[in-house]
Specification:
Elements lengths: L6 E4 L9 H14 L4 E4 L7 H11 L4 E4 L2 E2 L5 H14 L4 E6 L3 H8 L6 H18 L4 E2 L4 E2 L14 E4 L4 H10 L2 E2 L6 H18 L6 E10 L3 H12 L6 H10 L9 E3 L1 H13 L4 E5 L6 H14 L5
Parallel strand pairs: 1-2, 1-12, 2-3, 3-5, 4-5, 5-8, 8-9, 9-10, 10-11, 10-12
Antiparallel strand pairs: 6-7
């Protein structure tokens, strides 16, 4: 029986790629042929996720694309609004803008910036973005953000993409429920989603008179017949999350010691059972990450299984 939630896959260039963009387009086409209709792109210090979403959304017709996620601190919201509208137009209105608060330990040495009052900045950032993306302009002066473009900021065909936030802490969840269209929690297991994050988000959305928010649960998934080997690799690759305070807090709430404990790795039947727990906990969509942990054959098998299981259009 199909899962009652769309499934998207996080895509990144392969380390051996001769051209990162060409490689992701090729992978996106293969993803679509596997029955999956949405792809997500993370932001690091190399390939730009918003540019990649625009290119892939244009090159692969019918594919929904999104960023998961763009850190808000290094970029002014007017710049992000321009990029987001361009991606929305390029993909023919199949783009979702995913934002995140960022990680101080990474951003401070890289950009030489220090951001105080992150929740206030998030609220002000979302206020500016929503105004530009829905009206084409903004005139706002806050404590951390000011925006008053002297020329129109609208992009024809690019208005109104959904905004979702990588929110897990109570204040970030409240801000996202009030001012965004949804959340993208990662490493928040079913217990934390159903018992805390989803109810908080829905309460904030209702209080603000907004529709039910999208809850796009991020989870690492591999369908494999070598679970122990893949779990060992997951433990290596996911360990760094355990030292980031926001992720450590959500792992503690879920009652697990390591990030890899929340990776869904096993047979197709085992994976399906675990993913249904996320939907039962309130996830409206799934964002599947790290499907490459078991190698190319397992990755393709995972995509094909998930394409048969989900892929319900929003």
């Amino acid at each position: 029986m199909a899962l009652s939630a769309p499934i998207g896959i996080a895509l990144a260039p392969r380390p051996t790629a001769a051209n990162a963009v060409d490689d992701v387009i090729e992978r996106a086409r293969l993803l679509q042929r596997s029955g999956i209709d949405r792809a997500w792109f993370g932001q690091r210090f190399d390939v730009d996720s918003l540019s990649l979403a625009a290119v892939v959304g244009s090159a692969v017709p019918g594919l929904h694309v999104g960023t998961s996620v763009v850190p808000i601190n290094p970029r002014h919201p007017l710049v992000v609004a321009s990029q987001a509208q361009t991606a929305h137009a390029a993909s023919h209105r199949r783009f979702t803008l995913g934002l995140g608060l960022g990680a101080r330990d990474l951003e401070e040495p890289a950009f030489g910036i220090r951001t105080e009052r992150p929740i206030r900045r998030l609220r002000e950032y979302l206020t500016v973005l929503r105004s530009v993306l829905t009206t084409g302009t903004v005139d706002f002066t806050g404590h951390t953000v000011a925006a008053a473009p002297p020329l129109p900021a609208a992009v024809a065909g690019g208005d109104g993409p959904d905004i979702v936030v990588a929110a897990m802490g109570p204040q970030a969840v409240a801000a996202a429920g009030e001012l965004a269209d949804g959340i993208v929690p990662f490493l928040a297991g079913p217990r934390t989603l159903g018992g805390d994050i989803v109810p908080r988000t829905e309460v904030a959305a209702r209080a603000a008179g907004r529709p039910r928010p999208r809850v796009i649960a991020g989870v690492a998934v591999v369908v494999t017949d070598r679970p122990e080997q893949v779990r060992a690799r997951a433990a290596e690759q996911m360990a760094f999350y355990e030292s980031i305070p926001s992720y450590r807090a959500v792992l503690d709430r879920e009652g697990v010691g390591t990030a890899a404990e929340l990776a869904v790795i096993g047979t197709a039947a085992e994976v399906e059972t675990q993913l249904r727990r996320y939907v039962e906990a309130g996830a409206t969509e799934l964002l599947v990450t790290q499907t490459d942990l078991g190698g190319p054959e397992d990755e393709l098998a995972t995509w094909r299984f998930l394409g048969a299981l989900g892929g319900v259009p929003v």
